[in-house]
## 1
Amino acid sequence: DTEVTQTPKHLVMGMTNKKSLKCEQHMGHRAMYWYKQKAKKPPELMFVYSYEKLSINESVPSRFSPECPNSSLLNLHLHALQPEDSALYLCASSQDPGQGWNEQYFGPGTRLTVT
Amino acid sequence: AQSVTQLDSQVPVFEEAPVELRCNYSSSVSVYLFWYVQYPNQGLQLLLKYLSGSTLVKGINGFEAEFNKSQTSFHLRKPSVHISDTAEYFCAVILTGGGNKLTFGTGTQLKVEL
């Protein structure tokens, strides 16, 4: 099983809402990632978790709050977002956080629209 | 710091024609090189990667890429494209020696026409 799943596929939320994005993998990977992708742009790294600990935060605003409850799950909690946060949010995982050559497996993404 | 340049934002090509998507990188240290493909409304899928060894790398779906250290390039090629190859293609690098932060190029939209 080489699949990364993400829920929901689509999400529309108001600027005062609180919502969460979920990501799951059962490949035994110990590194998990959140990326943000705007239309016709490459993915931008937001967060990296290594062995369930936050190892990289790319200066992401605090209205985005990541959580890694266990080695298979990754959440992204959203609160008081702005319309410019509308984007495709991609989750990825890779086998060993210390080995950059490991392939990152991407999920299909959550299309987020902030109204 | 490393950077990745994909000079061609769009590449139109007829079906069954060959195609080359260009990628150049800059880094003061060695890098691992990747090509990912993104079909409409989907996540990214790895096509191929260069870690070391033979400079010609073969990937999925008939794609291959050649690492050229002197020109700091990693161009992607396919001898005969299909309509189904229409997608966005991203070149990406990671520094060797640790770390797992992918740096992506700006992407090339490959449009295959009949």
## 2
Amino acid sequence: AQSVTQLDSHVSVSEGTPVLLRCNYSSSYSPSLFWYVQHPNKGLQLLLKYTSAATLVKGINGFEAEFKKSETSFHLTKPSAHMSDAAEYFCVVRISGGSYIPTFGRGTSLIVHP
Amino acid sequence: DGGITQSPKYLFRKEGQNVTLSCEQNLNHDAMYWYRQDPGQGLRLIYYSQIVNDFQKGDIAEGYSVSREKKESFPLTVTSAQKNPTAFYLCASSTRTGLNQPQHFGDGTRLSIL
């Protein structure tokens, strides 16, 4: 079985300050992990993915995430928030075996203040 | 460019009416998915298909039906049995067995009741 928990439903930051969006997962097997971003009334866009190579993964738009097996975490960070980063962010886990159906977190809404 | 096209962008349903949402992809992906998105609830899986002429129920299939007659197309019908259809519907596709391959998403259809 697999599950994913996004620890914050909303995160509020000021423009130019760091961003931290938290994600914990549960998986019986080695997982693949993904972060997606969704802007209003749009589909989801892939930010980055972890697939058992380097534990620090760099994505688009200056985002990165670190896979920590001991903490079962895959937190998303960005050194300096931009107004255009305001969106909904989803953490997703996928495991081998079975049907490969991804499991989504409930999302974190990032609010960026000027 | 390859991608997923959902249509229409907005759809209105009358009482007792069935409506069909279109999803077409030209990514040559085997697997396709339908999700329902409600505020604060993340994405919930309605149906998925991993190969032509085969599909499986997701977590909230009641009141919905699908078909997969062509690799490129995976239409979703919202039937009159679905009593609360107002939501944002997202279609996605992926390779069937690639654990580390992400899903690609369309831009969604917003369905409302008249």
